[in-house]
Write a structure and sequence with these properties.
The chain is an alpha/beta fold. It is built from 14 helices and 13 strands. The strands form 3 sheets. The protein has an 8-stranded mixed beta sheet with strand order 2-9-8-7-6-3-4-5, sandwiched between helices. The chain has a 3-stranded antiparallel beta sheet with strand order 10-13-12. A two-stranded parallel sheet has the order 1-11.
């Protein structure tokens, strides 16, 4: 067996299952889960129609590179969303079966596994980054979030000798679970470090289309263009972005996303995926084209999240320290006012009010003297407005009764 498998930590939801073992939730309350970031809004009918009308595609083997119309639809979406120059669909876009699979596989293609190699990620983080690091033969290095910067990672705290060992940097903006969005100055710092030390930046942007203000979150390709890094012989050098339709279009079951950016990296990643069997089903490709080409349903989806956060955040602010995130659909709340740890809070809330939240310590690691997720909980506001309000009222009642 691969010895690196023994380095993997239990997934947060397995930890949650163990935390709830032996607990019978109060039968007076119907179950409400805010624990998993799985979109619950209805899938748009036009996407379902495009999927079912393309079933003839099941009779052929799909290309790992994807169809030209799909790559073109993604390229055009990138151009209009981020205001960047023309993206070459043939060399700068690669469709993938959901960003999770691609984020993991990318490390296996990029990291050489040399002794001392590091894969850097934010802390707290999406656990795929850590698993990808271990199974590529590298060691994870965690950069703690900074509450004073609305929980953006504190990259200035990283010693220079550490940067010299980094081969891959995972960036999540908007962040999971914190919702933090990196600024142009953050990107300037990371690009300069990447240029100096030669590491690759993998920007996870799956939450980019859920935001609350008039201005959408800054993207990595957009930042690179603004900083003069989108042209030349190697546009977007050492930078790739990952995105997905799951949150944007409410189709997590389609497993449809893309990787875009540095054509030299994508050429190598395509080679890797040709061997690993990562081709997207033709009906999924057809439905994805329809989704990437439409913005109306995305605007409607965003409006639903804005309404939920507008109504729910003030209720929870009465009993815990929580603020509106920069973007995304999570609330990252400090529960120390309740006198309970994050794990005790989650267990008792589940037992007494049948509401599931995820302890923040499960989403982070002890690093540099602290676990930045400790005493926090993550709440995914993915259900309907009414169900979200019901959950918020139960949490409010629970906290006031402590």
């Amino acid at each position: 067996m691969n010895p690196h498998l023994d380095q993997l930590h239990p997934y947060p939801f397995e930890q949650l299952r163990q935390l709830f073992a032996g607990v019978t939730p109060n039968p007076a309350h119907s179950p409400i889960s805010l624990g998993i970031g799985e979109p619950k809004h209805p899938t748009p009918a036009f996407i379902e129609k495009a999927l079912t009308h393309a079933m003839a595609g099941l009779a052929v083997y799909p290309s790992t590179h994807g169809t030209e119309p799909l790559r073109a639809a993604i390229a055009f979406w990138l151009e209009r969303r981020y205001g960047i120059p023309a993206v070459d669909p043939a060399t700068m876009v690669l469709p993938v079966n959901g960003s999770r699979e691609a984020l993991f596989a990318f490390a296996q293609a990029v990291v050489d596994g040399a002794p001392g190699a590091l894969v850097m990620s934010p802390n707290p983080f999406y656990q795929i980054y850590e698993g990808a690091a271990y199974l590529s033969g590298a060691t994870p290095y965690y950069v703690n979030s900074e509450p004073g910067r609305n929980f953006a990672p504190d990259y200035a705290s990283v010693p220079i000798d550490v940067w010299a060992r980094v081969q891959l940097l995972y960036v999540c903006s908007p962040g999971n679970p914190t919702g933090a969005v990196l600024t142009l100055e953050d990107w300037r710092q990371l690009f300069e470090l990447s240029e100096r030390h030669g590491f690759v930046i993998a920007a996870d942007e799956c939450y980019s289309e859920i935001y609350f203000g008039a201005t959408p979150p800054l993207g990595a390709l957009e930042a690179a263009h603004q900083l003069g890094r989108s042209g030349g012989a190697r546009p977007y050098a050492n930078l790739v972005v990952f995105s997905s339709l799951s949150k944007r279009s409410n189709v997590p079951g389609m497993r449809s996303g893309f990787v875009a950016g540095d054509p030299q990296l994508l050429k190598k990643f395509l080679l890797y995926r040709t061997y690993s069997g990562g081709a997207m089903s033709p009906p999924i490709q057809a439905a994805s084209i329809a989704a990437w080409n439409d913005e109306h349903h995305v605007q409607e989806n965003r409006a639903l999240y804005r309404e939920k956060f507008r109504l729910i955040t003030p209720l929870l602010r009465e009993v815990m320290d929580v603020e509106l995130p920069d973007a995304g659909f999570y609330l990252w709340a400090d529960v120390r006012r309740t006198g309970l740890s994050d794990t005790d809070f989650a267990r008792r809330l589940y037992a007494e009010y049948n509401v599931t939240v995820l302890p923040g310590s499960y989403l982070a690691r002890e690093a540099h003297g602290l676990n930045p997720g400790r005493n926090r909980i993550r709440m995914a506001l993915v259900a309907s407005v009414d169900e979200g309000l019901e959950a918020a009222n139960r949490i409010n009642e629970f906290c006031k009764g402590l």
